[in-house]
Known about the structure:
Blueprint: E1 19-24, E2 47-53, H1 59-64, H2 72-77, E3 83-86, H3 90-93, E4 103-107, E5 111-115
Amino acid sequence: MTTEDTKIDLSRIRIAGARVLVREHDPKTVTKGGIILPDHAQEKRSVAEVVLIGDGCDPELLARDRTKAEFAKTAADLSIGDDVIISRYALDSFGASELGPRMHIINLGDIMAVVKPENSDGGE
C-alpha cells in the first residue's frame, strides 16, 4: 500500500511497541479574515490521523502491565483512519522525515482523545 502524498510503502513499516504512526493535518495558512500567515506564525497542530498502530497497542497486553494499564482503553478505541488529539509536544519527540511529509511516530500515551468519524456507530 503506497499513499500518493507520502510516496512510502506502508506495508514495509512495522511500528514497534505502544506507538502510533500519525499524519498531522495541514496547518492553517489563512485566517477567516483572509490574512495569510507566515510559517513561523502558524499554529502548531494537535490533531492528526492514525496511519499505523504498533503491535504493543494491544489492549489486553496493556491491561496486564500496571505501568501501562491506563492506556488500554485508548488502545481499544483506536483504529486506522481515526483522528486523534495529541499532546502539544508529541510531534517534537520524533519527526520521521524519511517516512514522508507530516508523518510522525508518537507514543500511545501522547494521545489525549480519539475522534471517531461521523459515520462511526461507536456512540452510546
